[in-house]
Design a protein that fits this description.
The chain is of the alpha+beta class. It folds into 2 domains: 103 residues, Roll (PH-domain like), CATH 2.30.29; 51 residues. It is built from 4 helices and 8 strands, in the order H-E-E-H-H-E-E-E-E-E-E-H. The strands form 2 sheets. Strands 1-2-3-4-5 form a 5-stranded antiparallel β-sheet, with helices on one face. Strands 6-7-8 form a 3-stranded antiparallel β-sheet, with helices on one face. A hairpin with a 2-residue loop joins strand 3 and strand 4. The protein is elongated and about 75 Å long. The two termini are 40 Å apart.
């Protein structure tokens, strides 16, 4: 009975976790390979947003057209301006919906890929030379550096979880180095 209550009070239930190794909270582990996928938390996909915008256009333009025929000619142009502004905001949101970071440790290479608004930046590090540290404080982004090259990761994690990510990367690097 006590063990069941202790299991229920655990902050992380590793049995329900998609991670194959319960030591790592964010990583997917396959043999000696580690992969971290950190993505923006988006509640609406770009396709759903497009359908919403299309229906908003139909309703708004329909109401504007109705008032145009009733003699209120300024309603339709203002509806068009409103739809243009909302469309620009939705387009900005949709461009960044797939932003993310992928960190993978395979063999002797630590590869970091950062995607922002469709642009991909890639950095490769020799695992023996990688330093993992917070940039400024414990809640800042995690800095990966080696041989004069620096990359900040963890922007899609809550600040209090960034030290956990840094610790996981350190453990994976140590494990890969000893293997």
């Amino acid at each position: 009975m006590w063990q069941e209550q202790a299991a229920l009070q655990s902050p992380v239930d590793f049995r329900a976790s998609p991670v194959s190794n319960p030591v790592f909270r964010f990583a997917t582990v396959q043999g000696q390979n580690f992969r971290w996928f950190l993505k923006r938390n988006c509640s609406v996909t770009p396709a759903q947003l497009g359908r919403l915008y299309g229906s908003l256009c139909i309703v708004s333009l329909g109401i504007g057209t109705f008032f145009w025929y009733r003699g209120a000619v300024l309603v339709l142009p203002f509806a068009g301006i409103e739809l243009a502004a909302v469309g620009a905001a939705f387009l900005t949101y949709a461009r960044h919906a797939s932003d993310g970071e992928t960190i993978s440790l395979e063999g002797r290479q630590l590869v970091v890929e950062l995607e922002s608004a469709g642009h991909l930046q890639r950095a490769e590090f020799d695992r023996d030379w990688v330093r993992v540290e917070p940039s400024v404080s414990d809640r800042s982004l995690v800095e990966l550096s080696a041989r004069g090259r620096r990359v900040n990761v963890g922007r899609y994690l809550r600040p209090e979880l960034r030290p956990v990510l840094a610790q996981e990367i350190r453990m994976a690097l140590r494990g890969a180095q000893s293997a």
